Queue: 2 jobs
Job 1
Amino acid sequence: MNYIVFDLEWNQAADLRTRLENSLLFEIIEIGAIKLNENRDQIADFHELIRPQVFHTMNQVTGDLIHINMEQLADCRSFPEVAADFLKWCGSNYIFCTWGNLDLTELQRNMDYYHMPPVSQKTIKYYDVQKLFSIAFEDKKSRRTLQYAVDFLEIKKDVAFHRAYADAYYTAKILAQITQTKVFDNYSFDTYHLPQNKSEEIWICFEDYAKYISREFPDKSTAMTDQKVLSTKCFLCGAKTKKKIPWFTNNGKHYYTIVRCARHGMIKEKIRLRKSENDQIYVVKTMKQANPEIVQDILNKKSQIRNSRKERRHKSSREDSSSTLGLP
DNA sequence: AGGCAAACAATATGGGTACT
DNA sequence: AGTACCCATATTGTTTGCCT
């Protein structure tokens, strides 16, 4: 299995009118990539600029950032040609690696725009190296710039940042510096294509938590009544659990619950409702073992919601009564 | 019927990070 | 300039049950 570490640069509309005229939001104008073998040694590279067909003026901010101008792109090949060659170059046995979570989506959006055959019909499993960096060297949550990570690992800065090849190269260097094999359990999933049926749904168990990505649902209520979505079976052993706190939400988008597994103790579950590419609903559910503090946090959150609502009610009712009485 | 409050929903806003 | 993601809080609206 090879690692395809790639990075894209893209342009966008320079003015409002151009933005509204085009269905494509970001137009890819450069692809850079490094191929690593199983030992994460570099075995090949890929780099090509792309002649734009949608935006013919460089957005000011984008241009300042990536230092590419339209003249450089004039004689380049078009996106379908370059992208097809890039995918051919990738081979057949690989996993994509990117810095951050945007590149795979934008690649697929651009390919769809030109009606190219999709990279995959399924949800793509890949490595978000930005996330791996945080897990390997920091707090597992923070999101750092590529430059920060390069400085942190004291990687030699021999090319300028914010060009596709350079950023792919640095990302590959960072990836190669992650030695703990456990970090590589932390796959990411690009949800440009979501699971189309129950069997394609994603269930992944990490070291200390598990994640579930559902198929698409037409609306929220069908999602939130689905058996598999609401299921609170223990993610470690699959056993039935006892609900300690029923599902509750503070804003209708995030739902929380606390359950107890006889063997694995208290478990916190969280459901996030999200919009899919074609405006449907899907669910990301995470489960993790909860120590007493985490359980208390959830209890506090629940009571806080209740209290703040109660307070507001009282406040508004007092205002109502005082206003009807004509008091200040 | 009308008033009230809790609970439940949905949306809006503002803070942060990152990416081009 | 714009996007995505994450968080938390605020605001507004709807439903439900209980009271007078």
Job 2
Amino acid sequence: MLDLKYIRDNLEEVKKNIQIRNVSADPEKVVNLYNKKNEVLKRTESLRQKRNENVRIMKGKLSEGERLKLIEAGKKLKEEISALELSLEKIRSNLHREILKIPNLTHPDVPEGRSEDDNLELKRWGKPAEFTFKARDHLQIGNELDLIDFETAAKVSGQKFYYLKNKAVMLELALVRYALEILEKESFTITLTPDIAKEDIVEGIGFIPRGEESNIYSLEGTGTCLVGTAEITLGAYFSGQILKAEDLPIKLAGLSHCFRREAGAAGQYSKGLYRVHQFTKVEMFIFCRPSQSETQHSYLLNLEERIYQGLDIPYRVVDTCTGDLGGPAYRKFDIEAWMPGRGQKGDWGEITSASNCTDYQARRLGIRFKENGKSVYVHMLNGTAVAVSRTLIAILENFQQEDGSVKIPEQLVPYTGFSRIN
RNA sequence: GGAGAGGUGUCCGAGUGGUUUAAGGAGGCGGUCUUGAAAACCGUUGAGCUGCAAGGUUCCGGGGGUUCGAAUCCCUCCCUCUCCGCCA
């Protein structure tokens, strides 16, 4: 969330930002609720002060008459205070609800636009393969080589689930190992995170844990959710803590399953493994000083590129436009891999994203560090190291051979133990 | 899942209704002394909200309750430890 004082003092800027990011939020309502909260808080606190004074007097020796009088006064104060506290609580919860709708500020270089079509292409790497035969999509390849089984998964778990089989299993494990080793060398602390997190944590990271529009599976009656990404469990790792300035930047990497409801998502561009309810992902996370976050953001993008260059997957990098940014992100770079089976004649498909969320998440989660005796919110960044299911698409479709087999990228062979699937 | 013991500031730890405005210790920071360091001594040292500030207010695992007044009493949930049960 944004700082309340900042919204109050920069209302026009916040309004403009909401407009270019194409979301519905009402900062004026937030400011009104904030002012109202402060006003009621002030009255509550002055009554509390009276109550405390009253109590202090009663610590000493008093005549019975005086004591009774003070007790009566205390009773009256108590009633007034609880009435005010009740309305304060109401205002607070309204304020909380409204402020969560307000997105992060936006980096000045982010292209303005309404949808992903307005994202700005920054660069391309590699050359999409030109096939001398009719290219198949990963569904066909997966079927022919007995690698992916959607039908059985639909029967057992529902649509948009899948069984990986045979060499695809090893390929998934190899990708995970490949990414984790690179990150370990980059002195990330590698972790294997829980796949479940508490609702307030999920919300603190900026996801909506419940409701129709939520992309998150909540576990009824437990106050917890299945994580949509390890960004949640990594980001909350230090929640409520004050970090040592000399420890920054802190780099964590996490392997987890990711669960997404994807309600209403369907169609040609979501087919097969592209949009599924469960997949495996290695995520990177950085906590740093505000002055470092732009550099760290480039660093994350750079690492992602290295990882996909190592896999020989052709890709392009895009700077996500204002209308396509999620609430917490200040700026986001996506890597889109070339997927020959996507659309009619192949297309780019998002395979990683690296976001600089500045202090938007840190404020809700209470993650700070000390600077000159003052506590400052850290900046938090996240990036995909390997999203396995989509990387499988890219590998199967880009490295398919005329004889129906699939070649494994050279750098992955030490991890798979085979260089070809057939 | 059952029984018991716990959860207090960066850490250890005292505290069972009103001199707790959280004792004391360790650690950190500053200083005295010293060629320098150690030791010793002196001082200082949590966070949030509000406010220009002074100040005020909240926080003793979370939430709720009793009371004029709660770290302290009651209810509830969470977590940790020990033992038992179950189990990859």
